[in-house]
Design goal:
The chain is α/β, with parallel strands linked by helices and 226 residues long. It is built from ten helices and eight strands.
């Protein structure tokens, strides 16, 4: 076991959700509350990458706190009946990690209840710890707080965990805690995002199978979960 704990992001790392759920939801929200405004999928990915979703809403669309609350409730209602698919191979990685006595955790900008639902519907092993959007803003990534909690609660040294994330907030969080970071590059092919990750991350994986080979070895013959 290369790492005692794998700390997964959720959206676009474990499940394919931005292109299929979150971006369509945001476009519908703009149509209802900001007629004539649009956000392309590529722009949505880039703005979530940096500066992040909340700064995008405030700076690009002028949302105040009351409108952000409306957007959050709109998003919650939309995702309540829409479940994203896990990327092929993610289930096997999580199961192998658990079978070898390791931990899995989730630090995400989705709500805990939605994460647990997605895990159950995709037959993924339940994480040992989850820190989602329900946390106070100062305790959400890129704050180091949730990752420090994972280390403290599981009695881990920084080098015993690996953060797996597709966006810069996860990278910033891992770097601030001295925890190794693996860039998940399988959600999009946007040069701006891939270029930053390849330039700044010692570990970059373009597909899930590359991550699996890194964690468990390319000659691993464990059962493939479908």
């Amino acid at each position: 076991m290369k790492y005692r704990c794998l700390v997964f992001d959720h959206d676009d790392t474990t499940v394919n959700s931005t292109a299929t759920i979150h971006h369509p939801c945001f476009e519908r929200f703009l149509e209802d509350y900001y007629p004539g405004r649009h956000c392309s999928l590529e722009e949505y990915f880039i703005k979530n990458f940096s500066p992040g979703f909340l700064p995008m809403c405030r700076d690009e669309y002028g949302m105040d706190e009351s409108m952000l609350e409306i957007e959050t409730r709109y998003w919650q209602d939309y995702v309540r009946t829409r479940i994203p698919d896990a990327y092929p191979g993610i289930r096997e990685i999580m199961r192998r990690q658990k079978e070898q006595g390791g931990y899995t955790a989730v630090i995400s900008h989705s709500f805990r209840e939605n994460i647990l639902r997605d895990y159950a519907k995709n037959d993924l092993p339940e994480p040992d710890l989850i820190f989602g959007w329900e946390m106070p803003p100062e305790q959400r990534k890129p704050s180091p707080w949730p990752l420090r909690e994972v280390l403290n609660r599981l009695s881990l040294r920084p080098e015993e965990a690996l953060v797996i994330d597709d966006l810069k907030p996860g990278y910033d969080m891992a770097r601030s805690c001295g925890v190794p970071f693996a860039a998940a590059g399988w959600a999009n092919d946007i040069p701006e995002i891939e270029g930053f990750m390849r330039d700044n991350c010692s570990l970059y994986f373009k597909n899930v199978s590359e991550l699996k080979d890194y964690l468990f070895g390319p000659e691993d013959k464990g059962g493939v979960c479908t």
